[in-house]
From TrEMBL:
The gene is miaA. ATP binds at G9, T10, T11, G12, I13, G14, K15, T16. Pfam families: IPPT. Its cofactor is Mg(2+). Belongs to the IPP transferase family. Keywords: ATP-binding, Magnesium, Nucleotide-binding, Transferase, tRNA processing. It comes from Chryseobacterium luquanense. It catalyses: adenosine(37) in tRNA + dimethylallyl diphosphate = N(6)-dimethylallyladenosine(37) in tRNA + diphosphate. The keyword Magnesium applies. The keyword Nucleotide-binding applies. HAMAP family: IPP_trans. Monomer. This is tRNA dimethylallyltransferase. It comes from the Bacteria.
Length: 307
């Protein structure tokens, strides 16, 4: 049986390092399921692996798209499974890493059979979004499905539009719609989660945002901002990303820079809280301490037959 080791955990907890360490340990390759690291123009703000890190282990789905490209979770599921088939011809073990919970779920379990988008609903919701902003969509989803609201990337308006559309069509919450039986996979998944006290997670997030600013996040966001202000970039969901949307408000003169950076930290902590809520409900994650994640992972894996 081929094995996919999926490394999960909150933003800033050290998933990239553990994935690389495991890839080197098992002489294999890495699939990223971080949906924001797909975009080549957003490397710093999404904490994409550095050139040095990429040289240590071969990665897939890092910077392969432009923010102008449309790429759905369904496309990612298909592309990932096709790639896994190829990788499992060479390796018994492949590593996957990322904090985009639904993208990981798509690979290890499969997507549910949801209705196609309803054009009338989409037009209504886009009108609501244009007049009330993404905050209005967030309020609507929180009212319709508070459970999914706690887990979804609330800065991704396309994800919000889709969830509300499905709820309107089916009369059931989005959480109910995606809670059906898992689709079988021809590989075994072992999930390893990195954990730390919440105050440690928040401290690491704050320090990482400061490091991003030192590494040039402001200039990177300025380059992306030029696209945002163009006709082509007006409705791009990829630009509604923590680390960029806050700096856009600085560029627009709504916030000063210190406040924008503090909002990046706050929204990153909120995302980490949603990740914790999601992972807490999962029953098949083996948790290791962030201070000795590799040792803890190898000890657990060595206890399993066939590893």
């Amino acid at each position: 049986m081929k094995i996919l080791i999926s490394v999960v955990g909150t933003t800033g907890i050290g998933k990239t390092k553990l994935a690389i360490d495991l890839a080197r340990q098992f002489n294999t390759e890495i699939i990223s399921c971080d949906s924001r690291q797909f975009f080549s123009e957003m490397k710093i703000g999404t904490a994409a692996p550095s050139e040095e890190e990429l040289s240590q282990a071969k990665h897939h789905f890092i910077g392969q798209l432009s923010v102008k490209d449309y790429y759905s979770i369904g496309q990612f599921e298909r592309d990932s499974l096709e790639l896994l088939d190829q990788l499992f011809e060479k390796y018994d073990i492949v590593i996957m890493v990322g904090g985009s919970m639904m993208y990981e779920k798509a690979v290890i379990e499969g997507l549910n059979d949801l209705p196609e988008a309803n054009d009338e609903n989409q037009k209504k919701l886009e009108a609501i979004w244009k007049t009330g902003g993404i905050e209005k969509l967030q309020e609507m989803l929180k009212d319709l499905d508070p459970e999914y609201y706690e887990n979804v990337d609330i800065h991704n308006q396309r994800r919000l539009l889709r969830a509300i559309d499905v709820i309107w069509q089916t009369g059931k919450t989005y959480s109910e719609n995606i809670s059906h039986d898992k689709n079988p996979r021809n590989f075994k998944t072992i999930r390893i989660g990195i954990e730390a006290p919440r105050e440690t997670i928040y401290e690491r997030i704050n320090l990482r945002v400061d490091k991003m600013m030192e590494n040039g996040l402001l200039d990177e966001a300025k380059n992306v901002d030029e696209l945002r202000k163009s006709q082509e970039g007006r409705n791009l969901a990829s630009l509604n990303t923590v680390g960029y949307s806050e700096l856009f408000k600085y560029f627009d003169g709504e916030w000063n820079l210190d406040f924008a950076v503090s909002e990046i930290k706050k929204n990153s902590r909120r995302f980490a809280k949603r990740q914790l809520t999601w992972y807490r409900k999962e029953e098949n994650i083996h948790w290791v301490n962030y201070e000795n994640a590799l040792q803890g992972s190898l000890f657990f894996l060595n206890e399993l037959k066939g590893i």
